[in-house]
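It is worth pausing here to work through a concrete case rather than discussing structure prediction in the abstract. The textbook approach is simple: state the sequence, then state the predicted structure, then interpret. We follow exactly that order.
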Amino acid sequence: MKKMIGLMAVLCWVILIVGCAANTENAKQKSPASTLAATQQQSAEVTPEPTPEPTPTEEPRIIATTVSATEIMDLLDLDLVGIPTSAKKLPERYANVEKVGNPMGPDMEKVKSLKPTEVLSVTTLKYDLEPLFQSAGIEANFLNLTSLAKLEESVVQLGEKYDRKAQAESVIARYENKIVEIKAAIAGKPSPKVLILLGVPGSYLVATEHSYIGDLVRIAGGVNIVQGESVEYLASNTEYLQQGNPDVILRAAHGMPEEVIKMFNEDFIKNDIWKHFNAVKKDRVYDLPEELFGTTANLAADAALGDLLPMLYPELNQ
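Step two, the predicted structure:
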């Protein structure tokens, strides 16, 4: 009997030990580590979903608010959704494009309605226009067109931005070739002293060497009689200007050219001081065509330099 009891106890211990071992094995199989490994194995066997195709880049919606900016976009072979309202002839490709108003005061509501990705203006209008664009929630790009070099920089930057490098390089080469031609033509010649007057209906200003026309005069070898200024234009003071005694006077008429030229002619007759200028005595007063000599640089810069040369060096016209 004692043996039976002892045998029964041993069997109970065996069953208990086997049961514990089985439970331990089940626990191992259901542990987090083993579950993660199994999940990873299953995931590896699942074919991954194909990567979706990238969304096409949004087409640029560019608005040019000035004539110069519009002409640059045409040169770069770029479409526009908005152009300035202007009496000047704009590129034919934009004949049916929406007009957004005067360059000096674009219609902000119309600009916003066109949902532009970029709006182009010029730095000479930035002071007046930037607050208007900001209040309308429009970010504008103000191109610096105050000199030929700045024009070239703007063309290059836009060419890079819109993948039009070849077109940009072509126009830059055109200007650089013209400058080489100009330098060769004036080599060894004395530099003429030049006064530049910018006329608008009712008044006129003096253009410094920092203005676009002043820059063209510099490239052509002329010396502006107004030196040491940091601005593009100054108020006119004929007594002061007469002291500079320019060899050449250039008159640029803007706004209403015919009216401004008439104003210039009347002032040169009525204001006795003009007859004391060397340029007037020698009949070297020239009216610049507005389409070539704007207040900001334009794509006709090479043609403008060609027109300017015989004004500064009459012997080249003989």
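Step three, interpretation. The CA atoms of residues 67 and 87 lie 10 Å apart. The first strand starts at residue 62 and ends at 64.
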